[in-house]
Write a structure and sequence with these properties.
It is found in: Cell outer membrane. With 896 residues, the protein is mainly β. Helices cover 4% and strands 49% of the residues. The strands form 15 sheets. It has a 22-stranded antiparallel barrel. Strands 3-8-9-6-7 form a 5-stranded mixed beta sheet. It has a 3-stranded antiparallel beta sheet with strand order 18-53-52, with no helix packed on it.
C-alpha cells in the first residue's frame, strides 16, 4: 500500500512541477513554429512516420538543432535529459545503458566480452544494432537527424535486445534537390584539467538533381584529461589478503628487503602525469541516395569511427600504499588505454508495389577493441601471491615452509576483441491512412565475438622455451612455464602466451537469429484504436575456445604449461525460441489528446559461462563442492503494463505527457562473484530473483511567451525484489543435496552463506528513485540583425546502488573485507556493493545568431560536481567513475 501511495503522490508532484520524460525539445517540429505544439516531431518508433504526440508509448526525442544547442555528442550527455535512463561506465566506449531500473549491476572491462550477458537496452545507428556486452559502441553524434528513446519492452518490432527499451540514433539522409553544408567548431577548457577542442563538417551535394545525391560528414573531438596519476609506492603488507600463504601474517612481521626483488622498493614514477586521461573521437560517414524510380529509392552509407582513450576515468580513495588521495587522482603502475574502432556499412531499399510499402535494410558492422588496464593491486588479493612469490605455503619452490621470496607486484590485463554483426530485415506495410493498418516483416542477424584476454601479473621468472623441463629441474631454476590454451580448442591466437601471463581466455561466442513479426492497427471508431503485434524469434547460441591458468603446481619448472580447458568439447550450444507480443488500446477523446493502455513483453537470450564449474565446499567431510554451476544460463523475461496520457493545453502552448507502469522481470540474469563466501575466484552468471518495478513519468513542454521555451521532465521509479531464491545443492553425495546451500567450509572452518540473491524488498542497481530536469531557452532580437539567446538547465538524479544485494557491502570491514593500514577498508573482491549519492548538474549557454552564423558560449557542469556514476572495487581499492568536471568554451558554427 505504501508503494502505491508514494507513486500517487509523486504523480501529483510531477504534474504540478511539469516534470517528465522530455517530449522532444521541439524546435524541430515538422509544422511551422506558429502552428506547431511544443512537442511536435516526426518519429518512426512504430516503423512508420508518426507525430511524437500520436505514438502510444513513453518516448523521448531530440532533433538536430536541439542536439547541437545542448552540446549532446555522446550517450553521457544525452542521459542528462532522459529521466529513467541511467548509464554506467568505466570511461568512453565502456558502458551499458539501463532503463526504468532494469539492471542487475555492472562491472565492465575485464572479461566483459566473454562473461557479460547481452544488454537489455538496444542501441541503434539507423537500422543497425550497436549494442555489445558492457561495451556499447560509443557513437559520436554528428549530423544526426534525431535521437529516439523508446521506453519499455520493444521486443515486437526491435527484438531480443530491446527488453527494457531502445535508443535510436537516426542520421540525416542525403537531399536530392538541395546543396547544403555546415561547419561547427569549439574550443574550451576543463576545470582542473586540459583543453578541449572539436570540429565537424557536413556537405550535401546533389549529383543528379532529384535522382542522385551524396552526403558526407567528418568530425574530430579532443577532450582533455582531468585525472592526475600520482606518485605511489607499493609495499607488501601483513594485511594483504593472501599474506598468510607467506607465513608472516601471524606475528605481523614484514618481508625483509632480502626476501624481495629490488629490495622491495616498487613505485610508479615513470607513469606520473597530470591530466593523463584524454579522449579522442575521429570519424566520418558518407551516404549515397539514389531515386531509382518514382516509388523506389536506394540508400547506401558507410560509417567509420576511431575512439582512443588513455589513463583511467575513475578516481581512487587512496594510493597503493594506503595513503589518502585528494582531488581527481589515481596511482596506476601499468599503462592503461583503449583503442576502439568500428566500420559500419548499411543499405536500405524503399519501394511500393500498388498500395503496399516495402523496405529491405541490412548492415554489416566490424568493431575492433584493444584495451589494457592496470592490475597491480591484485598482488594484495588472496591468490595474488601465488604468481609472484615462492616458498612458504605457496605451491612454488618444491618444499613448503621454505623462506618466502617475492618478485615485482606490477601487473596488467590486456583484452583484444573483434566483433562482427550482420543484419537483414524486410518489412511490408499497408497504407497509413486506412482504417486497418498492418506491418509485417522478417529479420535475420549473425552476431559474433572473438575475445582474447590475458592477465599479466605473473612475475616469478619465466623458464623460457629453449630448455626442456628435465634440464630446468636439473639446474634447480626458480621459474614458471609460459601458460598455453588447449590446442584442441578453437583459438583466436594459438600457442603459449607471454612470460607474464597468469590467466587468460581465448573465446568465441555469439548467436544467429531469425525472426518474423507483425503488427496490426484497427480503428474501431474515429477515436478508438486497438493494436496487436507479435514476434516469433529463434536464437542459436554458441561458445567455443579455452580458459587457461598457471594456478597449478604443474606449471613450476617447465617451459610451457598447457592447462587450458576445451570449451568446444563441452558442446556449448543452446536454442531459444518463442513469441513475444504487445497489445495497445488508444483513445483520442478530442483533437490534441491521446490516452492509451499497453501490455507488452520483452526478452533477451541466454548465454554461457566459461564452461561448467563447481563451488562452495560442503561443511561435512570430505568437503566436496555443493554447487555444480552449469555452463549455460537461461533467458530472462519482462512483462510491462502501462497507461499514458498525451494532451495539448492552453491553445497548444503547452503539451503534457504522463505515463505509469508496472513491470515484472522474471528469472533475472545476474552475474555472481563472491570469493569470500566460498563461490570461487572467477565470476559466473546465473538466473536469479524476480523484480517488480512500478513507476511514473511525466513531461511538460511549454511556450508561455514569444521566444521562451521551457521543457521539464522527470520520473519516479520503485523497484523491489519479489522473491528470495537460493542456490540448491545439486552435487549428489553432499550433505545438503537438494536443499538450499546455507553453509560453506572455508579456511578450515564452517561459515554461513547469507542470502546469495538478496532478500525480498531489495532494489535493483542503477535505479534512482527520482530523476528530473528542467530547461529554459529565451530567444530575442537585438540590434544589427543579431538574434540572441540564453538558456540553462538543471538535472537531478537521486541516490542509487552499483550492484544488487547479491554482493556484500564495500563500506564495512566484514564479509572478507579487512582493515588495512591507516584504517582503510581493503576490499576482498573486485565486485562489491556501494551506494552512490544523489547529485545535480547545471548547464548554461548564451550566444547569438546572425545570418548563417551561430556563436555560443557554454558551460557544462557549471558547479563542478564530482558525482560518481559508477563506484566499484575493481583494483581492490574503492574507486569512482565521476561525471566530467566543468567544461567551458566557445562554439562557432555556420551553414552554407
Amino acid at each position: 500500500m505504501k508503494s502505491y501511495l508514494k507513486i500517487s503522490t509523486a504523480a501529483i508532484v510531477l504534474a504540478a512541477l511539469g516534470a517528465g520524460s522530455v517530449p522532444a525539445f521541439a524546435q524541430e517540429a515538422q509544422a511551422s513554429a506558429d502552428e506547431a505544439a511544443p512537442g511536435d516531431i516526426v518519429v518512426t518508433a512504430n516503423r512508420r512516420d508518426q507525430s511524437l504526440r500520436d505514438v502510444p508509448m513513453t518516448i523521448q526525442a531530440f532533433g538536430t538543432d536541439t542536439l547541437s544547442e545542448l552540446n549532446i555528442t555522446s550517450i553521457n550527455e544525452l542521459i542528462k535529459y532522459t529521466p529513467n535512463v541511467t548509464f554506467s561506465n568505466n570511461g568512453p566506449g565502456n558502458g551499458a545503458i539501463f532503463m526504468r531500473g532494469l539492471s542487475a549491476g555492472f562491472a565492465g572491462q575485464q572479461s566483459s566480452a566473454t562473461i557479460s550477458g547481452f544488454p537489455n537496452v538496444a542501441l541503434y545507428l539507423d537500422d543497425q544494432s550497436m549494442q555489445f556486452p558492457a561495451r556499447n559502441a560509443d557513437v559520436y553524434l554528428a549530423d544526426i537527424e534525431r535521437v529516439e528513446v523508446l521506453e519499455g519492452p520493444q521486443g515486437t518490432l526491435f527484438g531480443g535486445g530491446a527488453q527494457a527499451g531502445v535508443v535510436r540514433y537516426i542520421t540525416n539522409k542525403p537531399k536530392l534537390n538541395k546543396f547544403e553544408g555546415a561547419v561547427e567548431g569549439s574550443f574550451g577548457g576543463t576545470s582542473g584539467g586540459a583543453a578541449n577542442g572539436s570540429f565537424n563538417a557536413m556537405v550535401n551535394l546533389p549529383i543528379i538533381e532529384d535522382k542522385l545525391a551524396i552526403r558526407a560528414v567528418v568530425y574530430a573531438d579532443h577532450r582533455g584529461g582531468y585525472i592526475d596519476n600520482k606518485y605511489s609506492t607499493f609495499t607488501r603488507e601483513p594485511t594483504d589478503l593472501g599474506s598468510y600463504y607467506l607465513a608472516y601474517n601471524g606475528n605481523g612481521n614484514r618481508l625483509t628487503a632480502a626476501q624481495q626483488s629490488q629490495g622491495g622498493k616498487y613505485d610508479n614514477a615513470p607513469l606520473v602525469e597530470d591530466n593523463f586521461n584524454p579522449v579522442d573521437y575521429t570519424g566520418g560517414r558518407v551516404a549515397l541516395s539514389w531515386q531509382v524510380a518514382p516509388d523506389w529509392d536506394l540508400l547506401v552509407s558507410q560509417a567509420y569511427q576511431s575512439l582512443d582513450t588513455k589513463g583511467t576515468f575513475a578516481v581512487q580513495t587512496y594510493d597503493y600504499d594506503y595513503k589518502p588521495l585528494t582531488g581527481l587522482s589515481s596511482t596506476l603502475f601499468s599503462p592503461q588505454y583503449s583503442k576502439d574502432d568500428y566500420s559500419n556499412t548499411a543499405w536500405t531499399l524503399n519501394g511500393k508495389v500498388g498500395d503496399f510499402s516495402l523496405v529491405y535494410t541490412g548492415a554489416y558492422l566490424s568493431r575492433n577493441i584493444t584495451q589494457q588496464g592496470d592490475y597491480t593491486n591484485y598482488s594484495r588479493a588472496t591468490y595474488g601471491i601465488f604468481y609472484q612469490c615462492t616458498g612458504a605455503a605457496n605451491y612454488y619452490f618444491g618444499t613448503y615452509g621454505a623462506a618466502p621470496y617475492c618478485y615485482e607486484p606490477t601487473g596488467y590485463w590486456k583484452d583484444q576483441v573483434k566483433n562482427t554483426h550482420e543484419t537483414h530485415e524486410f518489412r511490408i506495410s499497408t497504407p497509413s491512412d486506412g482504417r486497418l493498418r498492418a506491418i509485417a516483416g522478417a529479420f535475420y542477424e549473425a552476431f559474433a565475438i572473438e575475445d582474447n584476454m590475458d592477465w599479466s601479473y605473473k612475475s616469478i621468472p619465466s623458464c623460457g622455451l629453449s630448455l626442456t623441463a628435465a634440464q630446468i629441474r636439473a639446474a634447480g631454476t626458480v621459474c614458471m612455464g609460459n601458460v598455453a590454451p588447449n590446442p584442441a580448442a578453437t583459438l583466436n591466437v594459438a600457442g603459449p602466451r607471454g612470460p607474464g601471463v597468469a590467466f587468460g581466455q581465448d573465446i568465441q561466442r555469439g548467436f544467429d537469429q531469425y525472426a518474423f513479426f507483425g503488427s496490426v492497427d484497427f480503428d474501431i471508431t474515429s477515436t478508438l484504436t486497438i493494436t496487436g503485434g507479435t514476434r516469433y524469434y529463434h536464437y542459436d547460441n554458441y561458445e567455443t575456445g579455452s580458459v587457461y591458468s598457471s594456478f597449478n603446481a604443474g606449471c613450476y619448472q617447465v617451459p610451457v604449461c598447457v592447462t587450458g580447458n576445451n570449451l568446444d568439447a563441452q558442446n556449448l550450444n543452446s536454442t531459444y525460441s518463442g513469441f513475444k507480443s504487445k497489445g495497445t488500446i488508444t483513445w483520442k477523446p478530442k483533437p490534441g489528446t491521446l490516452v492509451y493502455a499497453t501490455y507488452s513483453e520483452g526478452f533477451r537470450p541466454g548465454a554461457f559461462n566459461r564452461g561448467a564449474s563447481s563451488r562452495v565446499k560442503d561443511p561435512v567431510a570430505p568437503h566436496a563442492n555443493q554447487l555444480l554451476v552449469p555452463a549455460a544460463y537461461r533467458p530472462d523475461n519482462l512483462i510491462n503494463y502501462e497507461m499514458g496520457l498525451k494532451t495539448d493545453l492552453f491553445d497548444r502552448m503547452m503539451t503534457l505527457n504522463m505515463s505509469a507502469y508496472f513491470m515484472k522481470w522474471k528469472d533475472t540474469q545476474i552475474g555472481f562473484f563472491n570469493p569470500a563466501a566460498g563461490f570461487g575466484n572467477t565470476a559466473f552468471a546465473t538466473n536469479g530473483p524476480t523484480y517488480e518495478i512500478k513507476g511514473i513519468e511525466a513531461q511538460i513542454s511549454a511556450r508561455p511567451m514569444d521566444g521562451l521555451t521551457i521543457q521539464s521532465s522527470g520520473s519516479y521509479n520503485d523497484s523491489q525484489q519479489a522473491n528470495s531464491p537460493c542456490f540448491i545443492a545439486n552435487n549428489p553425495g553432499v550433505s545438503s543435496f537438494g536443499q538450499c546451500i546455507t553453509q560453506v567450509y572455508s579456511g578450515g572452518v564452517v561459515k554461513p552463506v547469507q542470502s546469495p540473491f538478496g532478500d525480498i524488498g531489495g532494489i535493483t542497481p542503477f535505479s534512482p528513485k527520482f530523476q528530473a530536469n528542467i530547461r529554459a531557452r529565451y530567444d530575442f532580437a537585438g540590434a544589427g540583425g543579431m538574434e540572441w539567446f540564453v538558456s540553462g538547465g538543471v538535472n537531478y538524479t537521486s541516490s542509487m546502488y552499483n550492484q544488487p544485494a547479491t554482493y556484500p557491502s564495500g563500506d564495512v570491514a566484514a564479509n572478507g573485507n579487512v582493515l588495512g593500514p591507516n584504517g582503510v577498508i581493503v576490499p576482498a573482491t573486485t565486485v562489491l556493493r556501494y551506494k552512490m549519492p544523489s547529485y545535480a548538474l547545471t548547464d548554461a549557454q548564451v550566444g547569438f545568431k546572425r545570418d548563417d552564423w551561430t556563436v555560443t558560449l557554454f558551460a557544462d557542469n557549471l558547479f563542478n560536481s564530482r558525482a560518481s556514476t559508477f563506484t566499484n572495487s575493481a583494483q581492490y581499492i574503492k574507486t569512482s567513475t565521476i561525471v566530467r568536471p566543468r567544461t567551458f568554451g566557445i562554439k562557432i558554427g555556420t551553414k552554407l
